[in-house]
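thought: fold this chain, then report.
action: predict
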Amino acid sequence: MAKATSLMFQLQYYNTLGLALLSLFYIILTLQLTESAPDSALITQLPGFTASFPSKHYSGYVTIDESHGKNLFYYFVVSERNPSKDPLVLWLNGGPGCSSFDGFVYEHGPFNFEAAKTKGDLPKLQLNPYSWSKVSNIIYLDSPAGVGFSYSKNTTDYRTGDLKTASDTHTFLLKWFELYPEFLSNPFFIAGESYAGIYVPTLAYEVVKGINAAVTPVLNFKGYMVGNGVTDEVIDGNALVPFAHGMGLISDDLFEKANKECKGNYNEPVNETCRSILNKVDEDIGGLNIYDILEPCFHSTDARDITTANIRLPSSFRQLGETERPLAVRKRMFGRAWPFRAPVRDGIVPTWPQILNGNNVPCTDDEVATSWLNDASVRKAIHTEEGNVLGSWELCSDKIEYYHDAGSMIKYHRNLTSRGYRALIYSGDHDMCVPFTGSEAWTRSMGYKIVDEWRAWTSNGQIAGFTQGYEKNLTFLTIKGAGHTVPEYKPREALDLYSRFLSGKPI
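observation:
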């Protein structure tokens, strides 16, 4: 009997030991799966910031073409809330040819940047209470190669366009998820603004093609967001004149003449009289900041403070466009976009530096980002390449020759929404570069049934804009008082609409 009891004890002991070892193996495996991000990409400190990060940050390169040495640079901010469950968002700034550090530094990144008080010093960083990393994991990508910190050792790669950029970014995503497989199950969204109105739907289409073809790894793609996005050359081109009239920037008489002589076609003047009238429109609005008609405009290369003397509008109007961000951030004036009625020759979309022959982007002051991202200690901290391969960081690159070869985005939006992917098209209603009148027009032109009739939406107990919802998960939305880069002007409201969209809640 004693021997039997001893044998039973031994069996229980070994069973318990086996279960313990199995549990330990499972824990180790789980840790490996949830902490597989490359150690070399981890950012441990950032010059200008002295506190602890609220979540993990990673950055580095993904090689998308070994033979050419084509490398795309990313900065990845892990969610401050629940990284394993929160959505993963890829953020793209536009241009074409502008760095997504624009979004990181000036819009919805984890920090607010305060300009240095002494020349030569670095900006100071404080935590941004309206960072989009509060509710999501977010990747800031410099794309295509030749933009920001992304580069190729074969400079022929700097001649590119919509379709190649979408294909390259899809390759980046597949390789990125191989480095960070723990995020494959997270809901995945693509977001961007301005010329990313082209980047986002073309990339989303590539992602969906890959999913349907069972390309691995399989992305858990759910939908996309576009802010003040370029969409259709004709509709966008025809949006400016109605916007200018509705905002009181041109007279009733001039608007009526434009309607009569141009017959609603402001993008391509139908006769010399129409052309003359449009020149008069351009003359009337020429001194305004096209990215926010309420804000002053900067043209020189010297940083200047905003003073009453260089603000043309009365203070009562100025207050409508004020942001909660510090003045040092606000004075940059929001550049980088495909400008209204920019010449497109042989399918080539000129970037701002090409239009200006090397001068600064009009109405902008990018001093804070430029000084920080060109500092050697910052570049070392975020793991950029050393030496001459990159050169100076610029808000918008003059390295690339870019072709707009994808045409209108309406066919892409129709394809994606008809498959059930969610789409939020939002517009700052004081942007004159890609006016909300164009975005409202093309979303309406899709022909979808209205399921949520035009109404106000609220944030923090106040009306924050207006929205209209269509069938097939398509939503159009305005943000009251915001310019071209919505989170820069209205950070609280931007985080609110972003959070609600990602979670599938009504806005």
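thought: worth noting. The chain has three domains: 2-34, 57-233+405-503, 235-364.
final: tokens above.
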